[in-house]
Amino acid sequence: MSNDGRYIDLGTDARTAPTSRMWEAMQAVALNAVPFKGHEAVETLTLRACELTGMQSALLLPSCTMANLVAIMAHADRGDQVILEESSHIAWSEGWGMASIAGIYPKLLKGSRGAIDLSDIRAAIGRSVFSHRPHTKLLCLENTHNASGGAVLPLAYTEEVCAAMKERGISVHLDGARVFNAAVALHSPVRPLTETFDSVALNLNKGISALEGALLCGSSAFIRKASRLARTLGGDSQHKADIIAAAGLIGLNEMADVIAEDHRRARLFASAAQRIAGVAIELESVRTNIVMADVSGTGLAADEVLRRLLHRGVAAYLYNEHTLRFVFHRQISDDDAKTAARRLEEAIGHS
Ligand SMILES: *Cc1c(COP(=O)(O)O)cnc(C)c1O
C-alpha cells in the first residue's frame, strides 16, 4: 500500500484554506477594527463583486446555500413555481429550504450537462387558462454545473435563455458557486457569463479559497429585499463580516490563475485514471476542476472503491452507487494528482 503519508483530499473544493495573503489581510482587519464604523471591507468586496458580475448591488452572506435560498425568496412568493435542473445543487444538496422555508413549488427538468432545453422550459411554464397551474416566477441555472462534472454552460445558451425569460417576465437566477471556473474555462471575464441574469450567487469558499461566505448580486431593489429576507434567516448579522470580506476580496482579485491550475490538474488526474481498467471518465468533458469517474466496470460498488481509497489516503465524494467525484483545488499539487490516480488503481486491484 502506498500511502506515503500524504492525505489527498479530493472530496470537495470547499475545504480550501485561505492563502497567506488572505490570512494577513484578515488579521490586519481584525486588529484595526474600529467599533461602530461600519463594514468598510464588506463594502469594498461588494463593489468589486458588482464590477465583476455587471450587477448594481451585492450582499455578503454566510453560505452560497443561503444566497440561493434568499434569491429564490426574493424572486418568488409562496405557492409560485420555480424551474430548476433536476440534478442542480439547489435541488439535490440544499435541504429543500425552497419548499420547507419558502413554500415554493419546484419544477425539476432534466438538462444535458446542466443546460435545460428552452423548449422544455417553455412547456413547463405553460399557460394557465383556468388559473389552475402555479405561476412561474423564476428559473435557476447553475454554472459550472456540479453534478455534470463541472460542465460549463455555453455563453450563447445563457444569453438565449435569459432573453427568452425576460420576454415572459420570468426572472433568472444563476447559482454561480463556480462561475469563476466557467470564466477560466471559456477564457472570458466573468461579466458576460453573469450580466444577463437577474441575480447571481458567487461562492467565496470553493476555488476562491477565502475563509467563508458567498455573495448575492442583483439590482439595488432586489438586494434590498434580499437583505431583509436574509435577516430573518440569520444571514444579515455577520458582525465580523469585514474579516471574511478581506479574504474574499483577495480571492476575487487573485485566484483566477490558481483556478486555471486546478483545471490542468483535474485533466492530469483524469487522463491517468481513465487508463485504469473498469474506470470510465469522459476526458473531453473534463473542462474545469471536477472529474466524475464511473467505476462500475471494475465490478466494485463505488462506496467500496471509496472505502479502499480512503484507506490509502485519498478522499473523494460518493456521487451515486457507480460514480465517484474528484474535485481539484489549490491544495492539490501535480504530484498529488498523479499519486491519487495511482492509489485509485491500487484500490481497485486490492481490497
Ligand atoms: C457548494 C455549492 C453551493 C453551496 O455552497 P455553500 O457555501 O457550501 O453553501 C451551491 N451551489 C453549488 C453549485 C455548489 O457547488
Q: Care to describe what's here?
A:
Its cofactor is pyridoxal 5'-phosphate. Keywords: Pyridoxal phosphate. The termini are close together. Helix 3 crosses helix 10 (220-232), helix 8 packs across helix 12 and helix 13 (302-311) packs across helix 14. The chain has two domains: 8-16 and 256-349, Alpha-Beta Complex (Aspartate Aminotransferase, domain 1); 36-254, Type I PLP-dependent aspartate aminotransferase-like (Major domain) (Aspartate Aminotransferase, domain 2), CATH 3.40.640.10. A seven-stranded mixed beta sheet has the order 2-8-7-6-5-3-4, sandwiched between helices. The mean pLDDT is 94. The chain has 351 residues and is α/β, with parallel strands linked by helices. It has helices at residues 20-32, 40-53, 64-75, 89-93, 97-100, 118-125, 155-167, 179-185, 191-194, 220-232, 241-254, 256-273, 302-311, 334-349, and strands at residues 8-9, 57-61, 81-85, 105-109, 136-142, 171-176, 199-203, 214-218, 290-294, 314-315, 317-318, 323-327. Strand 5, helix 7 (155-167) and strand 6 form a beta-alpha-beta unit. The chain binds pyridoxal-5'-phosphate.
Keywords, separated by commas or semicolons:
three-stranded antiparallel β-sheet, binds pyridoxal-5'-phosphate, alpha/beta, 2 domains, Aspartate Aminotransferase, domain 1, single chain, globular, 351 residues, 15% strand, 43% helix
Number of strands: 12
- Name every ligand kind in the structure: pyridoxal-5'-phosphate
Beta-strand content: 15-25%
**Arithmetic mean of pLDDT:** 94
